[in-house]
């Protein structure tokens, strides 16, 4: 397990202000970027498209879905910001939606219903992600691909295998979006400890399902002590937060509004970093040659080409080391399932 001594804490002030803004206000044309949302008509896609339309860092917003995208595009395009919006519907328009993109966000795919795990979505979402990433490989091979569609632990390995098969793989550019776990951790810990949630940062590592969601409460900024019962209950709530929303929505889907905000925050950090802003950090799930896992979420230093490097895990407490041990089987199984699927998909489709 990598234990990078470079400390996270010194870099954290660059993270928190992004909670309440729409990105840097640079209007230089070389700094504005082109962004696509695939699955733009969905519960996440619509509010995400709205938030992106408000950003001065974006010149063009490409909204793609298999249904209703023209309506979403017409609606969002009436907002008086400079971002040019174009909508695309159906496979015949997918290539045009992707050409020239710097960042592609993928919230396309079915959400959970009560009683389902994220892995239960694999059967539908694996093919959706594989199809969409194949189109990215052909039409915008240098774009950063941010995968929101669940199960993220498997869809990111699928995306990587597809890009490898097209000889356009760059491990710096395929990232599973785990930002919502980080936002939830800050919110829940702040509530429990009477802190200002916009000033709290808790790294969340490992993966994005069940036991693989591991908040590093020992590395919270600002430093706060926790009793063992507090560690247990906060870890449980952060891990279970997706299910909390699925159950509260009672059949009407999963987290969409908080996820749209999380994805927008992640996007603005990526765009800031592409524009050369130093010290931009977000957690994300990526290929991880430096850990014992093929893919792993850590805090990431972002740069001009995507992920500059993983910040690593820091000094884990005994409790956190045990949580990683307990997550091993689930994470590895999710990763191998994605890789196996991609092999079969590629053997059929090429
Ligand atoms: N990474 C994370 O933290 C989170 C991930 N999610 C995941 O995000 C995904 C989307 O969730 P919602 O927006 O609530 O679902 P939704 O069902 O409201 O929207 C999904 C959209 O994808 C579209 N779609 C389906 N197949 C497509 C294809 N081949 N190409 C383009 N678009 C396609 C649908 O038409 C629909 O508009 C789910 O898999 C969900 O589990 C949700 C919350 C948090
Ligand atoms: O729980 C779900 O199905 C959606 C999700 O990933 C989350 O809210 O973290």
UniProtKB/TrEMBL annotation:
One of the record's GO cellular component terms: mitochondrion
Residue positions binding substrate: 112, 118, 150, 184
GO term, biological process aspect, one: malate metabolic process
InterPro entries found in the cross-reference section: L-lactate/malate_DH (IPR001557), Lactate/malate_DH_C (IPR022383), Lactate/malate_DH_N (IPR001236), Lactate_DH/Glyco_Ohase_4_C (IPR015955), Malate_DH_AS (IPR001252), Malate_DH_type1 (IPR010097), NAD(P)-bd_dom_sf (IPR036291)
UniProt-listed Gene3D superfamilies: Lactate dehydrogenase/glycoside hydrolase, family 4, C-terminal (3.90.110.10), NAD(P)-binding Rossmann-like Domain (3.40.50.720)
Residue ranges the record marks as coiled coil: none
EC number: 1.1.1.37
Domain named Lactate/malate dehydrogenase C-terminal: residues: 178-341
List of residues binding NAD(+): 39-45, 65, 125, 148-150, 259
Keywords of the record: NAD, Oxidoreductase, Tricarboxylic acid cycle
Lactate/malate dehydrogenase N-terminal domain: residues covered: 34-176
Catalytic function, reaction form: (S)-malate + NAD(+) = oxaloacetate + NADH + H(+)
Pfam family, one: Ldh_1_C
Active site (UniProt): 208 (proton acceptor)
Any one GO molecular-function label of the UniProt entry: L-malate dehydrogenase (NAD+) activity
Keyword Metal-binding attributed: no
Entry similarity comment: Belongs to the LDH/MDH superfamily. MDH type 1 family.
Subunit structure: Homodimer.
Identification of the protein by name: Malate dehydrogenase
Organism taxonomic ancestry: Eukaryota, Metazoa, Spiralia, Gnathifera, Rotifera
